[in-house]
Amino acid sequence: MDQPATYTRAMIFLGIESSCDETGVALIEAGAERIPRLRGQALYSQIDMHRAYGGVVPELASRDHIRRVLPLTREVMRDAQAELRDIDMIAFTRGPGLAGALLVGAGVACALGAALGRPVLGVHHLEGHLLSPFLSADPPTFPFVALLVSGGHTQLMRVDDVGAYTLLGETIDDAAGEAFDKSAKLLGLGYPGGPALAELATRGDPARFDLPRPMLRSGDLSFSFAGLKTAVMVTLRKLGPSPSAQDHADLAASTQAAIVDVLTRKSLAALQSTGLTRLVVAGGVGANTMLRTRLGEQAARWYFTLHYPELALCTDNGAMIALAAAMRWQRHTADARVDHDFNVRPRWPLGAP
Ligand code: KG4
Ligand code: ZN
Question: What's the distance, CA 272 to chain centroid?
């Protein structure tokens, strides 16, 4: 949707995220030039529901998105003191993610678009993550390197502008978040394992177990984390039938150190190979304190700047989806649809047409 030449008022974007286990809805306001502003957001995490199963159950996730999405939308509109008719464009996560879960957001977005007579835009989930630091107090400027670290993805991207993404490297097997979650499971910690493992690690010795740091010398920017959970399993076995609480804490700390070490060194290599001096870190694992500390040390040493989303926007949320739509609209690249014929893309590489 092109912005009119005589554009005067701000545009309002509704964003709906429902790709996995969080229902997020948010309202973003954007002018033609300024960085978009968050007017309101609401989030419902299904973590408690999935915890009993040790992971996300797709069918339960879809059903819960259906229950939450309209009450959350009402909440956002009320908090932002806005009416549905004020919305100019509706954005939803088209993919990647769980098909049934994505369809909930897509269905609601298209129904709202049809009812209000507004265009609808399907947004790539990872584009939302990597643009999310633009809502922070210290937004980056283009170009930058983005480290995307979530439960499903581990990628280094070169980002030249909105929509101009070049993949520099990604995991060949497990994602960093998956490595946290699977190791946490082996240590008897609940779902999601990342925050629980990080918490246990604060009481442990990261140097006690020498865990593998795969692909550090691969000469490229690929990652591999599948071997780490095997190493954690073997270490646990060696500790015997009843490891102490300290053993567990030391193993958690050593696991976190291995993951953080690889992410830090590969990010540095990406900055060096591109010659860029800004690093954006986004996705759930970006909330990890040790990762932030290590990257901060390297940033001071090598003179690059670090940009994170606000902590509340590190994990999945609706604000990043509305933001991606707003930034696309500002650049006249929001290819929004008005026919409201919706589809989702559970598998969708960023940058693919
Ligand atoms: O981006 P996200 O919310 O959802 C996906 O799109 O996957 O990321 C979730 C992932 C999970 O694997 C979770 O364990 C991890 O992020 N995570 C963390 C931390 N907080 C969330 N991992 C390590 N330390 C944390 N503090
Ligand atoms: Zn995510």
Answer: 24
Strand, helix or coil for residue 185: helix
Q: What is the pLDDT of residue 5?
A: 46
313 CB near ligand 1 (under 6 Å):
no
Distance CA 117, CA 334 (A): 17
Q: Which residue has the tokens 């700390």?
A: 253
Q: Which ligand is nearest to the CA of 194?
A: 1
Query: 305-307 and 154-161: which strand pairing?
Result: unpaired
Nearest CA to 101 among 56, 137, 55?
Answer: 56
Nearest ligand 1 atom to the CA of 316 is: 3
In whole angstroms, what is the distance from residue 189 CA to residue 254 CA? 15
> What predicted TM-score, i.e. pTM, was given to this entire model?
0.92
> Would you say the C-alpha torsion 294, 295, 296, 300 has a positive or negative sign?
positive
Residue 8: predicted pLDDT = 59
Domains recognised in the chain with CATH numbers: 11-131+314-330 (3.30.420.40), 141-308 (3.30.420.40)
- Report d(CA 47, CA 49) in Å as an integer: 5
CA triple 18-21-26, angle to 5 deg: 40
Spacing of C-alpha 177 from chain mean position: 10
> 257, 175, 247: which is closest to 211 by C-alpha?
257
Q: What is the mean pLDDT of residues 291-311?
A: 97
- Answer yes or no: is the C-beta of 21 below 6 A from any ligand 1 atom: no
pLDDT, tens only, 83-142: 999 999 999 999 999 999 999 999 999 999 999 999 999 999 999 999 999 999 999 999
DSSP secondary structure code for residue 150 in this structure? -
Residue 142, number of CB atoms within 10 A of its CB: 11
